[in-house]
Amino acid sequence: MNITINGSLVNKSIENINNLEEILINLSDTSIPPNHLVGSVMINGNEFSEVFPGQAKEIAAVNINDLDIETVSFEKFAEAAIKDSAFFVKNIIASVNKTAELFRIYDETEANEKMAQIIDPLRALVVFINSTRVDLKWDFENDQIDGHPIVKDWEKLHSVIDELKLTQEEGDWILYADLLEYELVPVLNVWVNIFEEKSKNFNA
Q1: Residue among 149, 160, 151, 163 nearest 188 (CA)
Q2: Predicted pLDDT of residue 179
Q3: Which of 142, 187, 143 is nearest to 162 (CA)?
Q4: Of 78, 159, 193, 194, whose CA is between 20 and 30 Å from 152?
Q5: pTM listed for this prediction
Q6: What would the 3-class secondary structure string for 124-185 be?
């Protein structure tokens, strides 16, 4: 099997490996440049992209003659992700507003179902911001938005989420609706602004 990474031939013997997924894992551990991810994969001259999770397991190693891999740095990956993040957060905001409305009309069953759908995206947002902060060496202490350091908005997001958890445990749904509408939505709107401004820097 001929393997190239970013155009350079990899002098590596692939033994006791059954499929593409195992090959990529092995290369990620041994040959992918530090702080890089697999960006694109070509198999025998044809582009490969997983249509469903685990599809790479179905590509038998014996059927691969040429494997060409292009990588992308964590930094470039984070930059690309930030460009899509404002849209992602806007979708969360729309769901939060709908959930607050349901709590106000005491439709607790549907409201709790909606809130369950919001929790995972919120968690994903927090993880994304934190990882992007590391990958881009983003200085929240000195980088500012609207005249104050971004670290304040980072801390505010955490504090609002913590307050929502406490209020949910207490079952005060009117207060919960207020927190969603008057605390969470404003801080999410700030993050939309932050992502849009950061994207402009990448395009400059």
Answers
A1: 160
A2: 92
A3: 187
A4: 78
A5: 0.67
A6: HHHHHHHHHHHHCCCCCCCCEECCEEHHHHHHHHHHHHHHHHHHHHHCCHHHHHHHHHHHHH
Which pair of structure tokens corresponds to residue 130?
């934190």
**H or E element in which residue 90 lies:** helix 74-104
Between the alpha carbon of residue 157 and those of residues 73, 127, 142, the distances in Å are 28, 12, 18
Q: What is the pLDDT of residue 170?
A: 84
Distance CA 51, CA 49 (A): 6
Half-sphere exposure of 92 (CA within 13 A, CB side): 25
Q: How far apart are the first and last CA of the chain?
A: 42
pLDDT along the chain (204 residues), means of 10: 90 82 88 84 90 84 92 76 85 89 76 76 87 83 84 93 87 87 95 86 60
Asked if 32 and 71 count as a contact pair (C-beta separation under 8 A), the reply is: yes
Which domains does the chain possess?
2-73 (3.10.20), 76-203 (1.20.120)
